[in-house]
């Protein structure tokens, strides 16, 4: 679930915007002045920011400029009708789009969704094809480096191949027979329970490097096999 930070000193706008975004599946936090917006941003690291220009304590231009120095998070600025200079300055400060007040909440939701989709596509296109990242877990298929929260994990060849296969095929269920065919080959003559052993080792080694709840999981699908899930798994 993506998190949207809505910043406006008008409580009614915050309430209505929050309602419409939550109905569309977003988590929403609000702020009512520029200082509070920066505090919320630093603490929560939202995926999107809806930012009014006219704010108490610190205006939207200043907030946008400060955020742009730290992050590429998408920003949609709210401007007053007819104030062309405001829209131009907001875009120059690094805003991704603007919406003129008063606005239709449905249009705001549509713009948030479109910008997030475009940002995700751009990020995926820029990512090296040999790098696989799911949550805090990262695999480099060229160097064979596996890291959890930046910490290197030493894996034997078959454990590494099994993990790489899962990372390349997230959120799909595979039987033991599927995994044996892909990792060990069709001529493997051992027991299919070898898959259970390797997965158990993988779980132990990867989860040993973090005390937090992991944002990925090799899940047992009872009666079928295994499924590798990331933070956005369905």
From TrEMBL:
<dbReference type="InterPro" id="IPR001867">
    <property type="entry name" value="OmpR/PhoB-type_DNA-bd"/>
</dbReference>
<dbReference type="Pfam" id="PF00486">
    <property type="entry name" value="Trans_reg_C"/>
</dbReference>
<keyword id="KW-0902">Two-component regulatory system</keyword>
<feature type="modified residue" description="4-aspartylphosphate">
    <location>
        <position position="52"/>
    </location>
</feature>
<dbReference type="InterPro" id="IPR016032">
    <property type="entry name" value="Sig_transdc_resp-reg_C-effctor"/>
</dbReference>
<dbReference type="InterPro" id="IPR011006">
    <property type="entry name" value="CheY-like_superfamily"/>
</dbReference>
<keyword id="KW-0804">Transcription</keyword>
<dbReference type="Pfam" id="PF00072">
    <property type="entry name" value="Response_reg"/>
</dbReference>
<keyword id="KW-0238">DNA-binding</keyword>
<feature type="domain" description="Response regulatory">
    <location>
        <begin position="3"/>
        <end position="116"/>
    </location>
</feature>
<protein>
    <submittedName>
        <fullName>Two-component system response regulator ResD</fullName>
    </submittedName>
</protein>
<keyword id="KW-0597">Phosphoprotein</keyword>
<feature type="domain" description="OmpR/PhoB-type">
    <location>
        <begin position="129"/>
        <end position="230"/>
    </location>
</feature>
<keyword id="KW-0805">Transcription regulation</keyword>
<dbReference type="InterPro" id="IPR036388">
    <property type="entry name" value="WH-like_DNA-bd_sf"/>
</dbReference>
<dbReference type="InterPro" id="IPR039420">
    <property type="entry name" value="WalR-like"/>
</dbReference>
<dbReference type="InterPro" id="IPR001789">
    <property type="entry name" value="Sig_transdc_resp-reg_receiver"/>
</dbReference>
<feature type="DNA-binding region" description="OmpR/PhoB-type">
    <location>
        <begin position="129"/>
        <end position="230"/>
    </location>
</feature>
